[in-house]
Amino acid sequence: MKIVVIQGPNINMLGTRERNIYGVMSMEDIHAQMKAVAEQNSVEIEFFQSNLEGEIVDRIQECLGDADGIIINPAAYSHSSIAIRDAIAAVNLPAIEVHISNIARREEFRQKSVISAVTAGQIIGFGPVGYHLAMVGMLQIFSQIEAFKK
């Protein structure tokens, strides 16, 4: 099984940017923890980050036939990108949306995600540990898919 982790704009600035909101862990630290969980569960994992919407759409489309699930933090694009939403819907893979901060407690324009309607679920507000929770969720989805095949 393979998970592709897609990080949106400014996630590459974690550990530096607005530490009071996003914490002190870097994106690389988060990815290292996710990689350890993947290895423990014999799952392949790949990481991608872009500040450009079209590159994110392209990477989602490339998952078709290459991945079994997507963990995505679309960041600011969560609130506006119909293109990312449509790409996730088009590949028809299980996807989990992650947000480090609790977007429901943020500015009004951040409270609605246009992406969430096409994901298996959302994990918001748990800080960087949200990525670990997404890994656990994706592993559970994989387990259910395998059980259904039997």
From TrEMBL:
Family listed: Belongs to the type-II 3-dehydroquinase family.
Annotated substrate binding sites: N73, H79, D86, I100, S101, R110
GO molecular function: 3-dehydroquinate dehydratase activity
Reaction(s) this enzyme catalyzes, per UniProt: 3-dehydroquinate = 3-dehydroshikimate + H2O
CDD domains listed in its UniProt record: DHQase_II (cd00466)
Keyword Amino-acid biosynthesis found: yes
First-level EC class: lyase
Gene that specifies this protein: aroQ
Function of the protein: Catalyzes a trans-dehydration via an enolate intermediate.
Functional pathway: Metabolic intermediate biosynthesis; chorismate biosynthesis; chorismate from D-erythrose 4-phosphate and phosphoenolpyruvate: step 3/7
The name this protein goes by in its record: 3-dehydroquinate dehydratase
Site residues by UniProt (Transition state stabilizer): R17
Keywords of the record: Amino-acid biosynthesis, Aromatic amino acid biosynthesis, Lyase
SUBUNIT field: Homododecamer.
Record GO biological process: amino acid biosynthetic process; aromatic amino acid family biosynthetic process; chorismate biosynthetic process; quinate catabolic process
HAMAP family, per the entry: AroQ
Coiled coil: none
EC number: 4.2.1.10
Active site: Y22, H99
